[in-house]
Write a structure and sequence with these properties.
The protein has about 220 residues and is of the alpha+beta class. The protein has helices at about 5-10, 35-50, 75-90, 115-125, 175-180, and strands at about 20, 25-30, 55-60, 65, 95, 105-110, 130-135, 135, 145-150, 160-165, 185-190, 195-200, 205-210. The strands form 2 sheets. It has an 8-stranded mixed β-sheet with strand order 7-8-9-6-10-13-12-11. The radius of gyration is 19 Å and the shape is globular. The model has no long low-confidence stretch (mean pLDDT about 95).
Length: about 220
Amino acid sequence: MTILSTQDILDAGLDDWRKLAQALHARFLTRDFATGLALVSAIGGLAEDAGHHPDVTLTYPHVDVKLLSHDVSGVTERDVDLARRISAIAAEQGISADPAAPAVVELALDTADVAAVAPFWAALLTGDAGAADGDDIEDPGGRVPLLWFQHTDAHETPRQRFHLDVWVPHDVAEERIAAAVAAGGTVVDDDAAPSFTVLADAEGNRACVCTILER
């Protein structure tokens, strides 16, 4: 299977879905548990028919769905096809989506020596020191956010080493940045926008608002 480009996904017309980091995400507003359970059951049937299984989270007011072709670590046509079928089933059941709601938080750690620190963080986060994969530590059980290592020069001066990457839908990023600024933050660096924008709180602690655009 071929990984689709960002433009391929934007052109697919998936109004209910947004790509964040690697996967497609959607939130369906079921508003009660029974309706959500019925939708999950219908999604399960679609997944079995397609032989392709999404991650589904059922809560009282909504159902969150994540689609990714794990064999190629990206979004492919089979994800797009299943996304369309899930949206159609939701529409048939009178369930609307909130495409602005999905978000993904990743942790980034500056380090000059990935090999020295990766086993510690892999063991701490997942219980398995061998869970590091290149510059990433990803919990296969989905219990904790992905941690990735940002390569940097060795340094002795105290500085912020961790920052959050907050992935949001590309069409709500400006609104999210504006809200953070209105709440006391500042824009530190927007040279790479809309791919990512670096923000800081009143004490200088930084975070990035990330989208899939221009990557």
